[in-house]
Specification:
The protein is α/β, with parallel strands linked by helices and 382 residues long. Helices cover 36% and strands 19% of the residues. It contains 13 helices and 17 strands. The strands form four sheets. It has a seven-stranded mixed sheet, sandwiched between helices. It has a four-stranded mixed sheet with strand order 1-2-3-15. Helix 3 (74-86) runs parallel beside helix 10 (274-289) and helix 12 packs across helix 13 (365-381).
Length: 382
């Protein structure tokens, strides 16, 4: 198998090897310092090695790391309580797993089991993960084709097209799964009317509405959860990435009605382990105490205004919410990403022509200003 196509542990070196991190700063094995504006695809909302996350992990590791999901732990009970205290008010049940893909897999299973239906409608450009069910809901052809046939029953409609969604959802539809902001798909934001219309369409058909907040949750978009901007209550929400400050975790939140109608079984050996839950509680406490969504709103709005004001010919559009920002280019993103890396700033792509910024919500303003200046230079030179 071509090692360039799969990130095995033995893959050849193609990028810096990082050995240490603190806040928004990474150091490679040569001692070079970088500003991390990718945050591991949104995992690092609290930056690297946040001291309160480190302390929570250290304390929990000395008490209990893991017992099977059949048993309760103080860490799991506290994390669940804390998560539900900030979650959309209609979501009262939590299933814990280890990643965003697992959270989406659970959501799909819950929707099919609770409705007795098989069809799932997703959006073009959407990304929900790389396991077989989550991949079936994902749009990009290059992600899907090598692994087909995928799970049957999935269809895709254009994002932000209410009429197309209405036509696709029928009495056989178990769920509609959407993102409020399509991060991997190029940072496309749902229109003001789209998610309320999706809620109405699901209500009329008996389908469930799943909101994938794996990348947008935990303050990233200028709200604790992106869905707050649309004042819509989904039936299921998926969370992961930054939920435990960098420790692997996934969460699928549902209504009591979904739980009551569920038939079958689902479980996760490491889901809800005490170590991840302790880190998750600490991450939630920091995010809420410091109201990091407000900081994301301010820093993101200022940065997008500055980038739009550049008037760079290479830029087609700047879009985003809070500190999830996409710069769509008239050409390829790779040269700009490389120029940024040479300027010691790490950013990521969002498709072949989009530069995506997902900095830690705790990034010092001086570092954020340097990163935006570096991006401006790369765009003007591109």
């Amino acid at each position: 198998m071509d090692a360039r196509a799969v990130e095995f542990a033995c893959s050849p070196k193609r990028a810096p090897t990082f050995v240490r991190g603190s806040g928004a700063t990474l150091w490679d094995d040569a001692g070079t310092e970088y500003i991390d504006c990718g945050a591991s695809f949104g995992v690092g909302n609290l930056g690297h090695c946040h001291p309160e996350i480190v302390a929570a992990i250290t304390e929990q590791a000395g008490e209990l790391i893991h017992v099977g999901p059949t048993f309760g732990t103080d860490a799991k009970a506290e994390f669940t309580r804390r998560l539900l205290s900030v979650a959309p008010r209609n979501l009262r049940r939590v299933f814990l797993s280890n990643s965003g893909s697992e959270a989406v897999e659970a959501a799909i299973k819950f929707a099919r089991a609770a409705t007795g239906r098989k069809k799932v409608v997703a959006a073009m450009r959407g990304f929900h993960g790389r396991t077989m069910g989550a991949l079936s809901a994902t749009w990009r052809r290059e992600f899907r084709e090598p692994f087909e046939p995928l799970v049957p029953g999935f269809g895709h409609v254009p994002f932000n097209d209410v009429d197309a969604l209405r036509k696709a959802v029928d009495a056989d539809t178990a769920a509609v799964i959407l993102e409020a902001v399509q991060g991997e798909g190029g940072v496309h934001v749902a229109s003001p009317e789209y998610l309320p219309a999706a809620r109405e369409i699901c209500d009329a058909s008996g389908a469930l509405l799943i909101l994938d907040e794996v990348q947008t949750g935990m303050g990233r978009t200028g709200r604790m959860f992106a869905i707050e901007r649309w004042a819509v209550e989904p039936d299921i929400v998926t969370l992961a990435k930054s939920l435990a400050g960098g420790v692997p975790i996934g969460a699928t939140l549902t209504t009591e009605a979904v739980e009551e109608r569920f038939q079958g079984s689902h479980n996760s050996t490491f889901g809800g382990n005490a170590l991840a839950c302790a880190a998750g509680t600490a991450a939630l406490e920091v995010t809420v105490r410091d109201r990091l969504w407000e900081r994301a709103e301010r820093l993101g709005t200022e940065a997008m205004e500055e980038l739009r004001g550049l008037g760079a010919p290479s830029v087609r559009e700047v879009r985003g919410l809070g500190l999830i920002i996409g710069i769509e280019l008239r050409g390829k993103a790779a040269p700009v990403l490389q120029a940024l890396q040479e300027d010691r700033v790490i950013a990521i792509g969002g498709g072949s022509s989009v530069v995506r910024l997902l900095p830690p919500l705790v990034i010092p303003e001086a570092q954020w200003s340097f990163a935006i200046d570096a991006l401006g230079r790369a765009l003007r030179d591109g």
